[in-house]
Amino acid sequence: MKSRRVTTALWQAQSAGSVRPINNAAPTSIRRLSVAATGASPLILRTKTTTTTTTTTTTPPSRQPPARYLHTSPHQRSEAASSNPAIKFPCLDALETRSANLEQQAQAQAQQASARSDKSGPEPSYTVGATQTYHSRGEPLLLDHGGQLHEFDIAYETWGTMNADRSNVILLHTGLSASSHAHSTPENPQPGWWEKFIGPGLALDTDKYFVICTNVIGGCYGSTGPSSIDPLDGQRYATRFPILTIQDMVRAQFRLLDHLRVDKLYASVGSSMGGMQSLAAGVEFPERVGRIVSISACARSHPYSIAMRFVQRRAILNDPNWNRGFYYGRVPPHVGMKLAREIATITYRSGPEWEQRFGRRRADGSKPPALCPDFLVETYLDHAGEKFCLTYDPNSLIYVSKAMDLFDLGHANQQATATRRAERLAASSSSQSSPIPGDGATCSLTLPDRPYEEKPDPNGGSPLASALSNESPSPGSQHQSSNPQTPQPPADLVAGLETLRNHPVLVLGVASDILFPAWQQREVAEALRQAGNKQVEHHELSEVQSLFGHDTFLLDVNGVGGQVRSFLG
């Protein structure tokens, strides 16, 4: 009876002119109906999307039951139909408009591709500027978790001059989303992401050193990644691309060094994910690396950073346009990608900096509050997402960020990886089939039978928590060899870093960094010392010295660049 009364109310409301049947549903999935004529409560009905276009004409009130899918005509949304006007969402309108434009572009590109009989579809526009490319083929690159790349490209750029014995080479590693364009070149004069750190007399002095920077495998700026073509079938890898590790990226880079006939690096230098690679290069190729610089990084990923990257990936995976990774030639998951970048940006900067930079100021205090970007900090995040969402491949973000999560230089992980690789190599040498193991992913969408409970430390507390509760270092403090905040590194990590005991290592951290907190760099330095390394330099920039958080390595030419220049000599 209740259902019949609602139907009758809608029918009466339609006759009174409050609502009308929908012939061309808007892309929006939910519409709110205000049935003012009958006094009925507002209803929420789902609508279906259609591309049919019709012309609506005014007809006399009909006695036929109304159509199932209804919406309120814009000009009928008056004050009389609702207690308050509906809030506008220009930010969502913009996203819907972009989706429609991208759909049109994809269709146009598909038509052009069909006319050319190009089965690979339109090329993505992720590469930025001219690079050199090394193509590896002949010997497959075996990956840590069972996959392989039969052939691959490495995009790279160089600065400075390599000396006769090739002993002045520095390999510069990138962060998660950076290209090989660390500094401008004659072929690409655009400023690079480390423009003020590379050049004569700078941190990476090109009067002394020959600097090489690559785009990592898994990336989308010229190196082989998920958006690349699988040479075996001519189709894009998408999520058929194999799982990567930081060590896999480093091994691919050393294939490039082999090609350039560089037997040993003067130094391996990197920040953020690049700092992980820098340490991994020394562990994987101890005889081929001289000095090591690791800035704002760690020797094993920790739960907080893993969690933040997981949420970023979920934002992309839950965008319907992601299509399980097979979106090439279609509308990309730009909405999820934008949200992922906004989340990441929160971790890249610091609260104190934003307090000074934005405070609680709104973009336009003369306008009523809005649910779209309103505060200055919201507009900043929105802009960061906009800049990024169509310039980086979402699948690359998924794969490269997962490699960061898997990073662990502990002895046990190294041994397990070595065992897997040896077994796979033996199987390939004996021509035996060696299937790639399944990913083992599960998801039930159900609550556990027993609620999660915090497990107390059997020793009565957390060594790290008690260490972090101590007083912060003084503003001028840099060397932290005996700082009470230094956590006791696990024995497994100490054992894993023993291969670096004879390498000069610079470890640099930033107190305002929330993505790779400064205690993680202290852990690296202390683990190296306990492993027998007597050539460890550890410096930490206090919040007084830098409020830029994790992004300090991109911005602080004096604090970061000065320490690097001094260490390299």
Automatic annotation (TrEMBL):
Residues 73-85, 467-485 have a biased composition (Polar residues). Residues 168-527 form the AB hydrolase-1 domain. The lineage of its organism: Eukaryota, Fungi, Dikarya, Ascomycota, Pezizomycotina. Residues 46-85, 102-130, 420-492 are annotated as: Disordered. It comes from Dichotomopilus funicola. Gene3D superfamilies: alpha/beta hydrolase (3.40.50.1820). InterPro entries: AB_hydrolase_1 (IPR000073), AB_hydrolase_fold (IPR029058), HAT_MetX-like (IPR008220). Belongs to the AB hydrolase superfamily. MetX family. This is Homoserine O-acetyltransferase. HAMAP family: MetX_acyltransf. GO terms for molecular function: homoserine O-acetyltransferase activity; serine O-acetyltransferase activity. GO terms for cellular component: mitochondrion.
